[in-house]
Amino acid sequence: MRLLSGVSSTDVEQRKLFSEWVLGVGDAEIGDSNNGDLELDIPSDLLIPNS
Fold it and tell me: Is 30 within 8 Å of 40 (Cβ atoms)?
């Protein structure tokens, strides 16, 4: 997975953490398996609030 570089070191670090989280979900390292279904908690800082 490739993400564009951010302009600040904070942006780069946040994108790195997000991409690692997405890859962890895809690799079944995050979440619990339940008869083929995947259940996981999405960290609140990754959610987009309703406006």
Answer: yes
Both tokens assigned to 15: 């994108």
- Those residues with Cβ within 8 angstroms of residue 38's Cβ, 6 or more apart along the chain or in another chain: 25, 28, 31, 32
Strands (E) located in 1-51: 32-34, 37-39
**pTM score, two decimals?**
0.50
Q: What SS3 class is residue 37?
A: strand
Residue 43: CB partners within 8 Å, gap ≥ 6? 21
List pLDDT tens digits, range 23-47.
Answer: 887 777 776 665 666 677 888 887 8
Domain that holds residue 14: 9-46
Residue 18: inside a domain? yes
